[in-house]
Specification:
- This protein is of the alpha+beta class.
- It has a domain at 11-136: Gcn5-related N-acetyltransferase (GNAT) (Aminopeptidase), CATH 3.40.630.30.
- 41% of the residues lie in helices and 23% in strands.
- It has 6 helices and 7 strands, in the order βαααβββαβαβαβ.
- A 7-stranded mixed sheet has the order 1-2-3-4-5-7-6, sandwiched between helices.
- A hairpin with a 2-residue loop joins β2 and β3.
- The mean pLDDT is 79.
Length: 186
């Protein structure tokens, strides 16, 4: 029996399974689609309001195609992306997930996502602490600037590029923040 970090009351933490893939995809896509709809409106509406909109289809159509194709490709590649996951449920609905991939010498927290209406309630911290407890170290992640404080208060810290695995070192060249959690235990 695994010892998981206990989630806030009325939430349930459990390991993810292949049966959760669709619900995880929906959770991850929820915010993504809101952002893409806003981008599409900002890009496309000015072009469609012009009487000579024919030349602008070369811009509008690729944006619309990427909006539709990108999540579909992510869904099709889901089994290659992550080997282990944890989900947090609230009223039998997945509201948070942590997706992890294990490599030979390290693990990577690929994605941590909590539905907007369930943030600031300890769900994300619960998921990260569970990953720290259950996954072989070192654990690396690519962080958005706004999430740096969240991860550092949970024990992650910036790793110099020369100490990163090659795959992550290449990402750090492009300005991504790479954090690591290194422990002598598990």
């Amino acid at each position: 029996m695994h010892s998981y970090q206990s989630p806030p009351s009325s939430y349930r933490l459990r390991p993810g399974s292949s049966k959760d893939n669709l619900n995880i995809f929906i959770l991850l896509s929820y915010d993504y689609y809101k952002i893409l709809i806003i981008i599409n409106v900002l890009i496309c509406v000015p072009f469609f309001s012009r009487p000579d909109n024919t030349p602008y289809y070369s811009i509008v159509i690729p944006v619309l195609v990427v909006t539709i194709i990108s999540p579909v490709l992510t869904w099709l590649e889901r089994d290659k992306l992550c080997e282990q996951s944890w989900v947090v449920e609230y009223e039998n609905r997945i509201v948070g997930c942590a997706l992890v991939k294990k490599y030979a010498q390290y693990s990577e927290l690929l994605r941590l996502h909590v539905h907007a209406s369930h943030r600031k309630k300890g769900v994300g911290s619960c998921l990260v602490r569970t990953v720290i407890r259950e996954i072989p170290k070192p654990i690396y992640l690519v962080s958005a600037p706004k999430a740096l404080y969240f991860y550092t208060k949970l024990g992650f810290f910036p790793i110099p590029r020369h100490r990163l695995p090659r795959r992550l070192s290449d990402k750090s060249c492009f300005g991504f923040f790479i954090l690591g959690y290194i422990s002598t235990g598990n």
